[in-house]
């Protein structure tokens, strides 16, 4: 017998059961599913020129307006598979290009820092010092945390409070005078 919790509502349909995803995430899920089904059936995914054109249009939509929700269910599996390949390739190229650009810039800065003219070398050294990973000019502050037993902390606090009391008033307590509050209006009435 299955143990089923009756107080947990079931989604009305598969769409409602899916977590919210970006267009890119949804495309990745669909592409993995298409690939799995293709592998299980032993069929290749061969997009036509029309599929490729539609995939390019969709890719352009995704780049121009990333917030746009695309209804991927309206497209053929071949179109979506081709689109997923384009998106994955684009992401990898972008990451690789950025890493290459960073390396290029760092190499040029190293070259420039060897310049005998200080007005060219110093800015290059400064820029190199600010490169992620070098961080030569970042200010750092260190905090040391000492864990002590509560008894020791209480003793330290009491000692500091006693020292503060000695410094501010030598431990003398001021005399307290009890007073009785009276209403000013009733006093004026009794004097008249």
Q: Can you give a write-up of this model?
A:
The chain is an all-alpha fold and 192 residues long. The chain has a domain at 16-129. 60% of the residues lie in helices and 0% in strands. The longest helix is centred in the middle third of the chain and has 37 residues, at 77-113.
* Number of contiguous helices: 7
Report Rg: 37 Å
- First-residue to last-residue Cα separation: 94 Å
User: What is the H/E string?
Assistant: HHHHHHH
Number of β-strand runs: 0
Question: Which range best describes the helical content: under 10%, 10-25%, 25-40%, 40-55%, 55-70% or over 70%?
Answer: 55-70%
- What's the mean pLDDT score? 80
* Class based on secondary structure composition and strand pairing: mainly alpha
Q: In percent terms, what proportion of residues is strand?
A: under 5%
List the SSEs and their pairings.
Blueprint: H1 14-17, H2 23-41, H3 49-64, H4 77-113, H5 118-129, H6 150-169, H7 184-191
Helix pairs in contact: 2-4, 3-4, 4-5
Summarize the structure.
The protein is built from seven helices and no strands. The chain is mainly alpha-helical and 192 residues long.
């Amino acid at each position: 017998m299955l143990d089923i919790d009756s107080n947990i509502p079931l989604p009305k349909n598969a769409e409602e059961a899916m977590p919210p995803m970006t267009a890119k995430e949804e495309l990745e899920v669909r592409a993995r599913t298409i690939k799995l089904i293709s592998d299980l059936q032993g069929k290749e995914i061969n997009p036509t020129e029309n599929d490729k054109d539609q995939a390019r249009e969709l890719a352009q939509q995704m780049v121009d307006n990333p917030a746009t929700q695309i209804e991927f269910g309206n497209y053929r599996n071949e179109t979506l598979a081709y689109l997923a390949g384009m998106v994955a390739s684009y992401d990898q190229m972008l990451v690789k290009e950025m890493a290459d650009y960073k390396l290029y810039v760092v190499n040029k800065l190293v070259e420039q820092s060897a310049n005998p003219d200080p007005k060219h070398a110093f800015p290059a050294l400064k820029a190199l010092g600010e490169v992620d990973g070098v961080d030569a000019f970042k200010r750092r502050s260190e905090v040391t945390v000492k864990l002590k037993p509560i008894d020791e902390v209480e003793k330290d606090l009491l000692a500091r409070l006693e020292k503060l009391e000695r410094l501010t008033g030598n431990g003398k307590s001021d005399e307290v005078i009890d007073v009785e509050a009276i209403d000013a209006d009733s006093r004026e009435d009794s004097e008249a």
